Predict the 3D structure of the following.
Amino acid sequence: MAFADETTTAREETVTDTAGEAAFVERYPFESRWIRYCFAVAFAALAGGGLFGVIQALHRTNVYRGIISSSDYYTILTGHGVLMVLVFTTFFIAGLFLWAVTSSLDRGVASERLTKVWFWTMLVGTLLAATAIIGGLTDVIPASADVLFTFYAPLQAHPIFYIGAALIIVGSWLAGANYFKMFFSWRSEHRDERIPLRTFMVLVTMLMWYIATMGVAVEVVFFLIPWSLGIIETVDPLLTRTLFWFFGHPVVYFWLMPAYLVWYSILPKLSGGRLFSDGLARIVFLLFLLLSTPVGFHHQYVDPGIPEGFKFVAMTNTMFLLLPSLLTAFTVVASMEHGARQRGGGGYFSWLGDLPWSNPAFSGSALAGLLFAAGGFSGMINAGMNINYLVHNTLWVPGHFHLTVGTAFALTAMSISYWLVPQVTGRRLGLRNIAAVQPYMWFIGMVLMSNAMHRAGLAGVPRRTAEPYQYQSADIVYESAFGSLSGIRLQIALGGVLLFVALLMFLAVMWDTYMNPRGGNIGVSGEIPPALSGPEHSPKVLDNLWLWAAIAVVLVILAYGLPLAGLAQDGLLSPGSPGFPVLLEPLWPF
Ligand code: HEM
Ligand SMILES: [Cu+2]
């Protein structure tokens, strides 16, 4: 592991931040150690996932096909998806949240044992799932799991893949219990105070996560594990898909809300200013809690067996979900402007030049936000019930989510590590010049790859295929409307290579940081100034987490109750679905 523990050996050397205060690692050595472990696993997953990513990009664009054979493509693609969006994200978030709660409540974990338990549960789960996936590449391991990160039936994996995935989720639940325990013990001493903002964000995200993961937990425990073990013979693919997407949409907010936490709480400070409005940030997080789950059907627009009316409701809710993201864009940019003006910036737009663009923690988070805006626009296309048919299952879709999870989350995570890792290791950031250009490298690579993927998708190029030459006879259409397909393929490959280089740069910086001596001034300050408009300006009811969680559950029941009842009507294990199109009347009980 990159950040193995040395807190005890180097204890005598004091670590201070630029404000002269004792650094986080001095005050919270236990928490820092487990944050480091989380980040180490996350970065290892990022490295493996990135390698698979560039192999795919080169292979399917026909630029270099010598590394894998096409028959292994699904194994590599499963590895890429699982390592990136299940392992990298979950471990990084677990560490980030531990930092956020500890630093904002100013207290350590309530239970050290629980901390160890959730970490090891998640790690064992990861190793089991990874073993099953790697089994697809070698005969030494008698298992395989070429089921992609959207692991619903009818594709089937070895049971240890599903058991591993279940353990990752159970571990994340326990991590959430840990944050809640910290909060309860803080609450018992601060009865009438508002929940500190970062803790509020973590708790709301975890409540959303508990609701969302119910779908996938039921799918895995009641259907996929027994089915892969041969205990039950059949499953209903539509039901497992529905349960997966019940989780599959809100999971994207589980990735994004931590990025928002960084943008709201750290980015304004890095810009030299303060967050504009604490209350607005709380409202945004609550809107995500309410609206994230009752939208999953927007991934199933083409599925028969789901009533059209419910698809329509999902589309409407999805469009409402744009609201908190737009609120975020305005507040975060306003906070950045405030920071730039504090640093002497002026004019309508020239203040932009006064932002600290050479500080990679700032530039990476800001560029991630910028590309997220582009991802939001292509997301609106995905969400439209009719226009979705144009892009469904094409390369447009990976083009979209490499901007969201692949950049809004991943680039924010990498860049905030430049600020956070010194604080949890007590070492100055290494290879600073490389760190300063790394976010720009990622940005350029992603603009190339994602833009080309979107265009390829519009031209009808499917996602999830190893073969570059499909639908060749339609090339003339491509040439005129979207530029030549071979040009698009080259951009995907080139973008993929640049991204991989950016990833190696990030890993080199992290490694060099870890090699730096521990102690002295770490060169960053962990202090976060309060918002310009603090919590006292917003109603207290915003902090009533149970009320909002209860409303969220009611909305989920409204969105999913009847369609799930409809799916269950012909038996829970029988493949098949009601006739198509499904109308509401047969399902309506009154
Ligand atoms: C080195 C950087 C990366 C490269 C070169 C890369 C490349 C690719 C390519 C070419 C595909 C499409 C494969 C296909 O549909 O046939 C893909 C899919 C995917 N990528 Fe990436 N990617 C990178 C980083 C990331 C990151 C950072 C994330 C998320 C955190 C991510 C998440 C995914 C997911 C979820 C899929 C879909 C897998 C599936 O269809 O099952 N990628 N990637
Ligand atoms: Cu979605």
Summary: The CA atoms of residues 312 and 385 lie 7 Å apart.
